Amino acid sequence: MKFLLSTITILFVAFSFAQTAQEHYKNGVQKHNKEDYKGAIKDYNNAIKEDKSFTKAYFNRGTCFLALSNFKDSYADFTKAIELNPKDAESYYRRATIFVVQDKYLEALPDLDKTIELDPAAPDALTLRGQIRMQSGNEKGGCEDFNLAKKNGDKQADEYIKKFCGNKKQKNESLMLDWPDAENWKVGSQQENDKMTLVELIHSNETLENWTEIGTMTSIKGAKNVGLDKAMNLMYDQSKINSPKAKLTFIEKDENAEFPWIIFTIECPNFKNDKTPESQLWYIVQGETALYTNFRAVKKAEIAADLKTKWIAFFKTAKVVNQ
Predict the structure, then answer these.
(1) Which of 173, 172, 122, 168 has its CA nearest to residue 148?
(2) Phi, psi torsion values for 70, nearest 5 degrees
(3) What band does 318 get if pLDDT is binned at 50, 70 and 90?
(4) What is the pTM of this model?
(5) Gyration radius from the chain CA atoms
(6) In which order are the strands placed within the sheet that holds 247-254?
(7) Tens digit of pLDDT for each residue in 234-266?
(8) CATH no. of 2-164
(9) By the 8 A CB rule, do 263 and 283 touch?
């Protein structure tokens, strides 16, 4: 009989703890709804203390951290929620928004892809991914996302369809170049003025101050009928200012294409104020309203043959489009 009473006591205590976790969680939700995020976090902390596998408490606490711009703890909570429930599409979506609010758009794509894989009808995720795809030059993928989001009830998607996916040719020309998701690119910096637009891309685990590979996309607005050889030599002359030993190698060009292009390398063994080498493979294309100059670079004196082949193939996928 004593054994039975002890068992009942243990079950009663465990049940009481579960109730306590729920009570803390309910208190947190009430404060959360009133936008008392710090107060809600304390209650969610208590709920998690009582129940380490309380998925909703991790998710809600992560949402509060995100509202307070505490990206590190927010990321940790959404990651924990995913660990506890790998099929939780909402946690993947929320984790993607952490990157978006920090303007790290390409870094958000893997989690958005997973969100849509788990919930193909998620309109918010589709519209957000469509915007990022469009921004990174994947016009076809962006329009596919907008149309599916509209079909699933997102009214905002219709605005993007009219702006980017209409049948009429628009005045805004741009170069579409889809940087591979598998290479984990992110936008390191983006600048624009009335003369040019510049986007610098790096790998997600690197910075502009410390990178192993970098890419740039530049559009020089209003630059028309610029000779390809002239553009190549201009880039080379600019490089020699800081790297007198820079080496120019012409690879290929097509002056008869609808949008003429040229590919070449500039390899710099060192610079005047920096002994670190840098080698660039350039792709320049002449559009109707702008000159598009792009390159990928590594911190080496030369570009390996296999890497050169890979980069050439990548740049040849570029398209000049009108939006």
Answers:
(1) 122
(2) -90, 80
(3) very high
(4) 0.50
(5) 26
(6) 185-192, 196-203, 213-221, 290-298, 278-286, 261-268, 247-254
(7) 999 999 999 999 999 999 999 999 999 999 999
(8) 1.25.40.10
(9) yes
* Helices 155-164, 123-135: crossing angle, 10 deg rounding: 20
Cα 161 from Cα 178, distance rounded (Å): 19
Per DSSP, which regions of the chain are E strands?
173-176, 185-192, 196-203, 213-221, 247-254, 261-268, 278-286, 290-298, 319-322
How many residues can be counted in the chain? 323
Beta carbons of 86 and 68 less than 8 angstroms apart: no
pLDDT tens for 77-117 read 999 999 999 999 999 999 999 999 998 888 999 999 999 99
- Can you tell me the distance from the alpha carbon of 48 to that of 228, in angstroms, rounded to the nearest whole number? 63
Residue 76: is it exposed, middle or buried by C-beta count within 10 angstroms (0-12/13-18/19+)? middle
Nearest to 285 by CA among 264, 302, 304: 264
The domain 173-322: what is its CATH number?
3.40.1000.10
Domain residues of the chain, as ranges? Answer: 2-164, 173-322
Element (H, E) at 166: none
Q: Is 124 left (phi over 0), alpha (psi -120 to 50) or beta?
A: alpha
Q: Which residue has the tokens 């606490």?
A: 61
